[in-house]
Design brief:
Radius of gyration: 18 Å
Oligomer: single chain
Helix content: 25-40%
Order of helices and strands: EEEHEHHHHEEHHHEHH
Number of strands: 7
Shape: globular
Length: about 280
């Protein structure tokens, strides 16, 4: 099976493309094949429409918090929310988030989804720093247009399966909070390079096998990218492969969980989700 990891950006270009790690899942072995770069959102839409079968883990939030959607009066279902995003321009979406925060008390302006508290993830409403909200806006719209299948969230083409991944939580499980990447050349350090080497070494070693139940084969060269995009794409592929094996082993696992705020393809995060009827 082709399993891919996608390190996403809401404004891809030549200098900062969307980075894709192509891998092959063979039983409990995940074998890295190649890296791809996607230089525009139009190209990304074409990539999503490539015939399957494939499964991909994407590094952007597929959903918003229940608190935010309820307070806004927006639909809770994924398809209806994606359609609302499609009806808004990027500027209108940004304005809606800014207006929501304007009169709210500090600490009650940007909401996390319940299962991501403590993972290091920032709110899907965040516009500045790492603009996760814009990644959500662009990513969700393109998934909806492409008609891919989102397990537990929206039925689509079963040969093209999209999963929300989050490499940050996997990286922290493997090397703690050691910084391992930076997009700005002036802020790239030898300590980050060493952290990337440890991260990849632990991922392909016993620590990665224990966490994901996979034997991962990937070249040391993936740790050479100081931006961390190549490693993050690989981590997304590993999380997607773990989820594929989980759904094969226990097809009803997702059906037993409350997915009203979505879910992440990661063993630690999935265990945080409440069962249906207990949220």
């Amino acid at each position: 099976m082709l399993v891919q990891g996608v390190d996403f950006t809401s404004a891809p270009g030549r200098r900062k493309p969307i980075c894709v790690a192509d891998c092959r899942l063979d039983g409990d072995r995940l074998i890295f094949l190649r890296l791809e770069g996607i230089g525009s959102l139009d190209e990304f839409q074409g990539w999503l429409r490539r015939p399957g079968p494939w499964v991909a883990g994407f590094d952007f939030p597929f959903t918003q918090s229940r608190t935010f959607l309820t307070n806004m009066g927006w639909a809770l279902t994924w398809a209806a929310h994606a359609d609302r995003l499609e009806s808004l321009t990027r500027a209108e979406f940004r304005h809606a988030l800014e207006a929501y925060k304007a009169d709210r008390a500090p600490g009650d302006r940007e909401h996390a989804r319940g299962y991501e508290r403590g993972t290091g993830a920032v709110s899907p409403q965040k516009l500045y720093g790492v603009p996760v909200a814009l990644m959500h806006y662009e990513g969700v719209r393109h998934l909806r247009r492409a008609g891919v299948h989102l397990p537990g969230l929206c039925d689509g083409d079963p040969d093209r399966v999209a999963l929300e991944a989050y490499p940050g939580v996997a990286a922290r499980a493997l090397i703690g909070r050691a910084p391992y990447k930076n997009d700005q050349k002036a802020k790239q350090t030898p300590a980050q390079a060493q952290a990337r080497q440890r991260l990849l070494g632990n991922l392909v070693g016993e620590a990665g096998q224990r966490r994901f139940g996979l034997r991962i084969e990937a070249p040391e060269a993936l740790a050479e990218d100081p931006s961390g995009d190549a490693l993050d794409a690989l981590l997304c592929a590993v999380q997607a492969a773990w989820a594929v094996r989980l759904m094969e082993a226990d097809p009803l696992r997702l059906a037993r969980l409350d997915l009203s705020e979505g879910w992440m393809a990661d063993p630690d995060v999935l265990d945080r989700l409440p069962r249906r009827g207990t949220a």
